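User: Hey, quick favor. My workstation is busy. Could you predict this chain's structure for me?
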Amino acid sequence: MTIDKNAVRVDETMQTNIPGVYAAGDIRTHSGKLKLIATGAGEAATAANYAKTFVDPASKLFPATRRR
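Assistant: No problem, here it is.
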């Protein structure tokens, strides 16, 4: 796992450099990172959605999106 200034570096999907390992909240870093509770909650939702599609590729990335 890549550590940068005592935080885990992730990509835009919250995935670390180790496939299937995600990070969210104050433990992660990227350019423009804001350490706020609201930001961490949003990052956790993003990480969970991408982790689900990693484990189950047939699942929808945005489960609340309705099909027409």
